[in-house]
Specification:
InterPro entries: Transpos_IS5 (IPR047959), Transposase_11 (IPR002559), Transposase_InsH_N (IPR008490). This protein has 330 residues and is an alpha/beta fold. It has helices at residues 11-16, 26-29, 34-40, 56-68, 73-82, 84-90, 101-113, 117-130, 215-218, 235-243, 264-290, 301-327; strands spanning 140-149, 170-175, 181-193, 199-206, 225-228, 249-252.
Length: 330
């Protein structure tokens, strides 16, 4: 596979490159060692038809920008065509063509099919840890799950099913904050984040999978403590944390059982635990408000998983940049 020749700076590029308005994403860009990313992506192509394809690192950067600014594929194509800030970040000169929306969609699909989005997520987290921005050993794990509506509902029984229907999602009913039962057809994001709100592990499932089923697989194994709401409370999980070597401090919320209400002490303890556990709820809030994760944009669990991990990468990069600025980290 040959790559399209891009990034050859023209006279016009050199005249405008120094303007601070198009340098706003430079710090974010420089958090990543792109050479290691290029090695991981070396076999991913944006073209299925044999012609020259856009360089895989350019395409990956496009997906990150798309998630950062919550843009659809057509909107991302337009933004690349007219925005110097975007061109600078991804490495396109003024005279370079931009990938069309179908190419962007196809590359997103390829990342999932080739199983590369998870290694990319882990690789970038490792880079942030090597910069001492993410603290790994002994950190706290805060675990929770959130429901996301599918792009399309399942076709009604007896109706014609075509490729606009998402048959991998599932229905789930849950009480909202007002106590009203709401039924959603969709998926569920399961997250493990630390106290600084860095996302450490991600799982995605159909919405009808209970939160607790992903508990042990979300653990990193090197955390010092775990916080989670009462949906995760079980004797099996208590035993798992106690028997882990070394033991993991258990801060899962106590829950009331039939004929066994919470004591006043348990209520106070749960309130204290919530002060830490609220971190993961804020992460979900950012995902849905800023990264378009209130409703899936793609069909199928694999595409949803890719989108969730892209949101996690962007969230971690923004969090890292905020900490660097706050504490003056090199």
């Amino acid at each position: 596979m040959t790559w399209k020749q891009t990034g050859q700076l023209s006279l016009a590029d050199s005249l405008i490159n120094a303007h601070k308005a198009i340098e706003e994403l430079d710090e974010l860009h420089d958090l990543i060692n792109w050479q290691t990313i290029e090695h991981t992506l070396r076999h991913v192509h944006s073209s299925d038809r044999g012609e020259s394809a856009f360089h895989p690192v350019i395409m990956f950067k496009i997906l990150l920008l798309q998630k950062l600014y919550n843009l659809s594929d057509p909107a991302m194509e337009k933004q690349l065509a007219r925005d110097l800030l975007f061109r600078r970040f991804v490495g396109l000169s003024l005279t370079d063509n931009v990938p069309d929306h179908s190419t962007i969609w196809r590359y997103h699909k390829h990342l999932g099919e080739l199983g590369l989005i998870e290694p990319l997520f882990n690789q970038i987290n490792k880079q942030l840890a090597e910069q001492n921005i993410i603290i790994k050993a002994g950190s706290v794990s805060i675990i929770d799950a959130s429901i996301v509506e599918a792009k399309n509902k399942r076709a009604k029984k007896g109706k014609h099913t075509d490729n606009t229907q998402d048959n991998e999602a599932a229905y789930v009913s849950k009480k909202d904050s007002t106590g009203k039962v709401k039924t959603t057809y969709g998926y569920k994001i399961h997250l493990n984040c630390d106290e600084d709100s860095f996302v450490k592990k991600v799982q995605t499932t159909p919405a009808n999978v209970h939160d607790s089923q992903c508990f042990t697989t979300l653990l990193t194994g090197d955390e010092s403590a775990v916080y989670a709401d009462s949906a995760y409370k079980s004797q099996a999980h208590d035993d798992y944390l106690a028997e882990h070597e070394p033991p993991i401090n258990n801060h899962i919320h106590d829950r009331a059982w039939r004929n066994t209400p919470l004591t006043e002490q348990q209520k106070r303890t749960n309130t204290q635990k919530s002060q830490t556990r609220n971190t993961v709820e804020r992460v979900f809030g950012h995902f849905k408000l800023h990264y378009g994760m209130s409703k899936a944009r793609h069909l199928g669990l694999m595409q949803f998983h890719t989108s969730t991990l892209l949101a996690s990468i962007v969230h971690n990069l923004k969090t890292a940049l905020g900490l660097k600025r706050k504490y003056g980290l090199p």
